[in-house]
């Protein structure tokens, strides 16, 4: 487990993740810092909707008696509306996915949260070739997204019972890659084959740029190497400072 820590208005804020997602963690810390100048965020009631996920600040005390504020998020393995976890890995991963999709495609994001609903064709949940299409939301809480099969011979003959309306976090259970495109604007169509994004077009059927799995893996390896280098340098610096302090103390003891 990796712990990201920041000091915001003299308060220690910590965020735990299984992966070195320092850019995503840093973005949340930055937003918390900005909001802290406008309102009190340290009250155990503060809620931050950042992109797709919700984050909460809960006061805790560690094993050494240090009081700090833990950044928590919804627990997607249960019900994120009522269950929380201090392991924010999933929320940070989705945040990275969605920010990358928007930036690489040069699109203007349109909000979609983990609680917003998506219309899903039941058959598509187990299909290898699927697509997502976003239309204007009919009401609040509706993402406007539809999840169906690319080749559907009964597309115009489905009964109402053939569909499900699910909160978007449920995509984690059967098609996590679909989470990548959820902030894309109305009119976007995404094709996913064998759990991998293979095509992305805008409302005018213009192809949009997106990264491949191989490209993302390469970028991830680079980011991990950079993070490990940063951690090694920080540890070396801490050890050097500890050794210097120890040497200084020994000198003072001798002088006494």
Describe the structure.
There is one protein chain. The protein is α+β, with helices and mostly antiparallel strands. The chain is built from four helices and twelve strands, in the order E-E-H-E-E-E-E-H-E-E-E-E-H-E-E-H. The chain has two domains: 2-94, no CATH class; 111-210, no CATH class. A hairpin with a 2-residue loop joins strand 3 (47-50) and strand 4 (53-61). It is elongated.
Give a quick set of tags describing it.
single chain; about 260 residues; alpha+beta; 2 domains; six-stranded mixed beta sheet; 4 helices; about 30% helix; about 30% strand; elongated
Short overview:
The chain is of the alpha+beta class.
Write the layout of secondary structure elements.
Layout: E1 2-8, E2 11-17, H1 22-36, E3 47-50, E4 53-61, E5 67-74, E6 84-85, H2 89-105, E7 117-121, E8 129-134, E9 142-149, E10 163-167, H3 171-174, E11 189-193, E12 196-201, H4 213-255
Parallel strand pairs: 2-5, 7-9
Antiparallel strand pairs: 1-2, 3-4, 4-5, 5-6, 7-10, 8-9, 8-11, 11-12
Order of helices and strands: EEHEEEEHEEEEHEEH
The mean pLDDT is 90
Calculate Rg over CA atoms.
23 Å
Count up the helices: 4
């Amino acid at each position: 487990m990796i712990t990201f820590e920041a000091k915001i208005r003299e308060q220690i804020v910590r965020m735990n993740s299984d992966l070195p997602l320092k850019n995503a963690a840093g973005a949340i810390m930055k937003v918390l810092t900005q909001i802290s100048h406008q309102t009190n965020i340290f009250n155990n009631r503060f809620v931050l909707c950042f992109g797709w996920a919700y984050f909460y600040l809960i006061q805790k005390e560690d094993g050494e008696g240090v009081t700090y504020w833990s950044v928590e998020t919804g627990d997607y393995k249960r019900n994120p509306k009522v269950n929380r976890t201090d392991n924010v890995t999933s929320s940070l991963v989705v945040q990275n996915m969605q920010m990358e999709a928007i930036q690489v495609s040069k699109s203007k994001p349109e909000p979609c949260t983990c609680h917003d609903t998506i219309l899903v064709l039941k058959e598509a949940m187990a299909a290898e070739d699927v697509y997502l299409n976003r239309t204007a939301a009919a009401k609040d809480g509706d993402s406007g997204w539809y999840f169906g099969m690319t080749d559907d011979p009964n597309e115009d003959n489905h009964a109402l019972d053939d569909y499900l309306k699910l909160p978007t976090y449920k995509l984690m259970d059967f098609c996590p890659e679909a989470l990548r495109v959820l902030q894309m604007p109305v009119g976007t169509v995404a094709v996913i084959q064998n759990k991998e994004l293979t095509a992305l077009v805008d409302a005018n059927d213009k192809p949009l740029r997106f990264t491949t799995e191989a490209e993302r893996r390469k970028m991830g390896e680079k980011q991990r190497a950079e993070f490990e280098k940063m951690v090694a340098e920080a540890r070396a610096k801490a050890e050097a400072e500890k050794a210097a302090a120890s040497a200084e103390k020994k000198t003072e003891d001798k002088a006494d």
